[in-house]
């Protein structure tokens, strides 16, 4: 992806923090904001906490990042946008991974009633234990 062009197409300026945050989220899918901040500071040591949060919000609002909010965990960010994939989350360590959508019609994603809402997306999170937590006997 030509990120500078994508930013400009969405009316956003091309800045070092935006480029750095986008790169970090690509290298660390499902990273939380604190992880993004730590990694961005490796190349931009003076970037502020607020700047990283602002960039995450701007890139998410622009459709360049996706914000995932697993229950009981901080929000996470990923660059995989524009498809209908889901996530599997570990109850032990909080690890998160992508799960492709089931092939064919997925009735759980089509509500029986919208109650007047315009539906924009549906999220499915599968919860369990990752292999490491299962091996360690985490429950």
TrEMBL record:
Cofactor note (record) = Binds 1 zinc ion per subunit.
Q: Name one GO molecular function term.
A: DNA-binding transcription factor activity
Q: Which CDD domains match?
A: Fur_like
Which SUPFAM superfamilies did the record assign? Winged helix' DNA-binding domain
Cofactor(s) the protein needs: Zn(2+)
Family the UniProt entry places it in: Belongs to the Fur family.
Q: Any idea what this protein is called?
A: Ferric uptake regulation protein FurA
Specify the species: Cellulomonas cellasea
